[in-house]
Amino acid sequence: MAGIKLFPISGMNNVSGDDSLQRGGDAPKLFVRDALNVDISDTGRIALRKGASQVSELNFKNIWQSPLHRDVFATLDHNVVLVSPLDWSHRILGENIVAQSVSYQVINNLVYICTDIDLFVFDGVALTALNVPVPYFSNAPVLSDGGQLPHGNYVIAMSCLKNGKESGLSESRLIKIDNDLKQSNPDFAINSLKKIQINILELNPLDVDAVRVYITTTNGSVLRHYDDFNISDLGSAIDILSVDKLGFEAQFENYSPMPIGKYFDYWNGRLITADKNIIYFSEPMAYHLHDEKYGFVMLPQRITFLVPVEGGIWVGQVDHVVFLSGRQPDEMTFIRKTAHPPVPFSAISVDGDLVGSDISQGGAKSALWLAENGYVIGTATGQIIELHAGTLHGITAKSGRSVRLGRRIITALG
After folding, report:
1. Pseudo-torsion of CA 203, 204, 206, 207, nearest 10°?
2. What number of CA atoms fall less than 13 Å from residue 145's CA on the CB side?
3. Predicted structure pTM score
4. Domain-terminating residue out of 90, 110, 130
């Protein structure tokens, strides 16, 4: 009986029949049904995969190394920590700010962190909250004497200021000042001037620097800047005395703090997060603000991964993958690209040097994920390349995490 030459091995194939696993000719190939705990080299040689060793007794999770300064971040209990991989000591950056999941992005030399509680930014020294809380009226504004507001209708609203950033506007309140007539002399109706008092006791505990107040002119419709009030100097109320010297128009009506999500990335000058079947977009270069009217895209199924590329965004769905194209959230269209279900959380962004210039189309980044039929590349222009089509199938998992190690992609399934 003729022997079978074992090398070089070309990889796994659990799709073709037994007769197709060995191929002769000038470029002979041999495929195996399964390869467990081994690595197959570029030349088709097999090496036993190295084992693992415990490096710390602490239960670090969500470990990530920043490409900026090679800092290593992780979560420990409910804290975000900075880890030294030399001795696995750690420094707590933020306490009680994560329940389970966390994602990281480097943007403009800062590390942005999205947990399942809030969004944060690390500048190399301290971790601070990204979002600025939106203020609210704990009590209805009241009228009193001593101001210079004539009778008519006024609309007021507030925002908060923190580290040079302004929050979205609070809900607006309509204030009516009635005409107060002195009936003793009906020929000279005298208007009693008023002021508006805003109770701000409930705002004092907010972690902000100042409260900004907007008001319309008498019977006007445009909110304009009245004044800023430092939170440390505030008493129990803010007085609006006059509308004679109002400033700029309010910019952030219908804006809210940027929502968190299971998936977190950066695209076209915006932060993007995704949760359930909705993708949320921040405002360009104002990452803490989210447009409630237009800053989202809703998809038909639950989102399982999110990877932006130059021409759009690759989005995993429960049983397929779509490509979102367009430059603005309210202009985006999506095209169904593949019917194979992806493994949730398995997608990563890969550089052109890994996939080659032909696939990367000039060096642009591509998306790569693990699907039911093997690894798949989504190009920057929305094309699909199924690397293991016809050789692999039946890959399923509740979740997966992919990393690049040299020229290899390794995905841990769970």
Report:
1. 140
2. 3
3. 0.90
4. 130
Q: For residue 290, count other CB atoms closer than 10 A to its CB.
A: 24
Asked if 319 and 311 count as a contact pair (C-beta separation under 8 A), the reply is no
Residue range 19-77, pLDDT digits in tens: 888 877 777 788 899 988 888 888 888 899 888 899 999 999 999 999 998 999 999 99
The per-residue pLDDT for range 226-243, each reduced to its tens digit, is 999 999 888 888 999 999
Is residue 184 helix, strand or coil?
Answer: coil
Number of domains in the chain: 4
**Same-domain check for residues 27 and 159:** no
Residue 258: left (phi > 0), alpha (psi -120 to 50), or beta? beta
CB 149, CB 194: distance < 8 Å: yes
137 located within any domain: no
| Phi and psi angles of residue 219, each rounded to the nearest 5 degrees, phi first | 60, 20
* Co-location of 109 and 248 in the same domain: no
Specify the DSSP element, H or E, that contains 113: strand 110-115
The reported pLDDT for the residue numbered 217 is: 98
- Is the pLDDT at 161 greater than 70? The verdict is yes
Provide the token pair at 370: 């693990």
**Same-domain status, 208 and 160:** yes
Which of the four pLDDT bands, split at 50, 70 and 90, describes residue 189? very low
Report the phi/psi class of residue 304: left, alpha or beta, with left for phi > 0 and alpha for psi in -120 to 50. alpha
Half-sphere exposure of 282 (CA within 13 A, CB side): 25
Three-class DSSP labels, 66-104:
CCCCCCEEEEECCEEEEEECCCCEEEEEECCCCCCCEEE
Cα-Cα end-to-end distance for the chain: 43
* Mean pLDDT of all residues belonging to the chain: 92
